[in-house]
């Protein structure tokens, strides 16, 4: 969530909206076939082929195409 612990008031104000955003991104990833750990961690495997990697990149492009200001 990349929260700044040096500013507690800002932290409290930003915590809920950021958590909601992470949950929404996790749902969007899942809807496009990307399975994450806790909605925010993604791992690759040495067993992934170029085709699997390209499918994942295409899925990320699809998700990011719906994020305001991402392009």
Structural summary, described in words:
By secondary structure, the chain is mainly alpha-helical. The protein has one domain (8-64). The chain is 55% helix and 0% strand. It has 2 helices and no strands. It has helices at residues 8-31, 50-64. The longest helix has 24 residues, at 8-31. The chain is elongated. The two termini are 21 Å apart. The mean pLDDT is 86.
* N-to-C order of helices and strands: HH
Compute the gyration radius: what is it? 15 Å
End-to-end distance: 21 Å
Shape: elongated
Task: Please count the beta strands (DSSP E, at least 2 residues each).
Answer: 0
Sheet/helix structural class: mainly alpha
Portion of residues within helices: 40-55%
Strand content: under 5%
Oligomer: single chain
Quick take:
This protein has 71 residues and is mostly helical.
Features:
single chain; elongated; 2 helices; mainly alpha; 71 residues
How are the secondary structure elements laid out?
Blueprint: H1 8-31, H2 50-64
């Amino acid at each position: 969530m990349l929260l700044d612990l040096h500013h507690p008031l800002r932290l409290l104000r930003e915590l809920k909206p950021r958590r909601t955003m992470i949950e929404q991104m996790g749902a969007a990833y899942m809807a496009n076939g990307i399975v994450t750990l806790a909605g925010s961690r993604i791992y690759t495997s040495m067993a992934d082929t170029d085709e699997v990697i390209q499918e994942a990149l295409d899925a990320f492009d699809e998700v990011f195409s719906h994020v305001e200001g991402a392009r």
